[in-house]
Amino acid sequence: MSLLTNFTVQDELFMRMALDQARLAGRMGEVPVGAVIVRNERPLVLAHNLREASQDPLGHAELLAIRAAAQALGNWRLEGCTLYVTLEPCPMCAGAIQQARLSRVIFGARDERAGCCGSIYRIPEDPALPGFCPCDGGLLEAECAQIMSEFFRGRLGSAPKTVGSGDEKDFERTGGRLK
Ligand SMILES: [Zn+2]
Questions:
Q1: Residue 158 confidence (pLDDT)
Q2: Which of 149, 134, 173, 144 is nearest to 61 (CA)?
Q3: How many angstroms does the Cα of residue 56 sit away from the middle of ligand 1?
Q4: I need a surface site. Which of 28, 54, 141, 166 has the fewest CB within 10 A?
Q5: What does the radius of gyration of the chain's CA atoms come to, in whole angstroms?
């Protein structure tokens, strides 16, 4: 992950598709994270977080996109595919990225608390693991982070307290960049 990375206009276009997915998730009351998998410069699948609706701990946007892309291709190896996601992938998704043999990951907002594509770990680029996948972050970072902060601010404002969910506090703990 380098600050010197030059993203292309096309990268930005795909991240905007992921942002649209994130907004869809937010309107459903899901933590607003969206993902797009691109192959041959075309979007192959779109997905957004569905953890609440599905009550599935594996319901993150990235995992849903990876599974749908593998089904679409009839191949679990997603070589040649790029994943665009609005938030830096968590340990679970970073493991799946590495398992799926994706060729590249581009994410928007960094997650300094749980991000595993550069913030606390760098799982897809770990040379100890098979399936090296380069990760670049910070594309449309301000917009991607703003969707998150607005979502959590809205939830804090409308509900007295969300019992059983530590998400708001967790988000505040991520500090600086995502506020
Ligand atoms: Zn995840």
A1: 58
A2: 144
A3: 12
A4: 166
A5: 15
